Amino acid sequence: MRGIATCLAWALSITSTYAAPPAGAGPKKCAVTEFSQQTIFVPPRDYNTPKTLYGRTAQLEDGTLLATWENYSPEPPIVHYPIYKSTDKGKTWAQFSTVKDTVNGWGLRYQPFLYVLPRAIGTFKKGTILCAGNSLPTDLSKTKIDIYASRDSGKTWTFVSSVASGGRGIPNNGETPVWEPFLLVHKNELIAYYADQRDPEHGQKLSHQVTSDLVNWGPPVDDASSATYDNRPGMTTVARLRNGDYLMLYEFGGGYNPANSGWFPVYYKIAADPRKFDEAEEMVINAGGVVPTGSPYVVWSPSGGKNGTIVVSAASHSEVFVNTKAGDKDAWVMHKTPQESAYTRSLLVMDDPDYLLILGAGQLGGDNKVTDTVMRLPNL
Ligand SMILES: *[C@@H]1O[C@H](CO)[C@@H](O)[C@H](O)[C@H]1NC(C)=O
């Protein structure tokens, strides 16, 4: 363990209201070490293609990291989300627990998302870990976004509530599935964002629902939709910026791509209220003529200057796209990373916010495995 495991996390909560600690106060920074493309999990040979996909991570208040991904184990038994754990800042990982479908009998199949509650919601205390995901049966005939919770740092998981249900899990216009949950606490509520194909006016749009107790959910509210039925805005992620604004990132199937680099240019919107993205301006990420495409992810770090740093990943690039001007559309800069591109790599700002963890679980249709990189923010 080389002493790293005894390193204390900063005395600040891992929250969406992240703030740099005052100089000279509290425990000193943890030693986060850089490494690239470390293997977390190599699937057994009998796994189904793509074996792994869509990795996600969360950091607990004590610095422990958890990771999960779509896990294509042979069926039966029904599929589940594995939970791997790292106590050395992402360098080594071990199988820790599993999140299993205990309500549908279908499996937890697609699009997991991990989130540490930064404050209590209902009976769920601050620090509770939530795992949202898309439950589908083996024949993909239904989709259902369910939430599970762990009150013991990820060891055991229990079903909490279901946010949204849809039709078969096929990503074609005219089908009616729901996809890709992302969670965010705003004030005393939890927001669940997801992609929604149930509105006959839109092939796919982006919606959210809100809860104040994690049991009862409000009605779906639009976040992004296109006047062109065939267009498919998808895959919401959201980051809170230093000025208190929220940045919503998404792929915009059919959206205008000034670089002609593909069908799913990465777009974003900025709003003061993360429940009101629908009315916000749509902007495309364009770093000097390079427009990233597909399955994006966004985080914000307080490091990197007065505005901190917005970091964006997309399937099209191993690089990340960085903005230190609070999302100014002319201020995106592309930087190299040592972590190979993947279908929806996840980003995590470490407890030392000078460092970024990038996790990838491979490409659509790939013969995949799960790997991660920890690197200094490339603009520092
Ligand atoms: C912070 O963002 C604002 C708004 O885009 C910009 O005008 C300013 O130059 C940025 N500050 C730094 C230090 O980059």
Automatic annotation (TrEMBL):
The keyword Signal applies. PANTHER family: BNR/ASP-BOX REPEAT DOMAIN PROTEIN (AFU_ORTHOLOGUE AFUA_7G06430)-RELATED, BNR_ASP-BOX REPEAT DOMAIN PROTEIN (AFU_ORTHOLOGUE AFUA_7G06430)-RELATED. It comes from Pseudogymnoascus verrucosus. Residues 1-19 form the signal peptide. This is Sialidase domain-containing protein. SUPFAM superfamilies: Oligoxyloglucan reducing end-specific cellobiohydrolase. Keywords: Signal.
